[in-house]
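Progress report, Aim 2. The chain analyzed during this reporting quarter is listed below.
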Amino acid sequence: MTTKPNPPPAADSQAEILATWRTRRVGLRSDIEVTRLSIGNVPSYVLHDPVSFRNHRLSLDDYRVVAALNDSQTALECYQSVLANGDIENTTEIEFYQFLIRLQTLGLLALPVSDVNRLYHSSKNRKAAEFKGKLQ
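Predicted structure tokens for the chain:
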């Protein structure tokens, strides 16, 4: 994968990432629009997020990973699949999950909600903080 590498996480952090992401079912959001571009005979892909109106450019290798994401598979199964297909080379499992974390940070992934109450309270607290910021 060609995105900027993060510094390697600490061993505790690695174990937490592996434990959390191996069993997650991960897929690209259904409303994300994908466009293929060719710039100087080099293909690249643009993901357009219609909610945030932001575009994200991916290399061919990164797009192959994104295209392989399927919410009927766990992230570990997806990693094993793209590795077996030769879509990624020299990429460790932790680097694969860090790529997924970057995609999630950009809001491009659809992840199942496991704790609805926690999500509700998080949203409520965020909105309250935004409102409080507007008052100041």
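The beta strands are 27-28, 33-39, 42-49, 54-59, 109-110. The longest helix spans residues 116-135. These observations will guide the mutagenesis work planned for the next reporting period.
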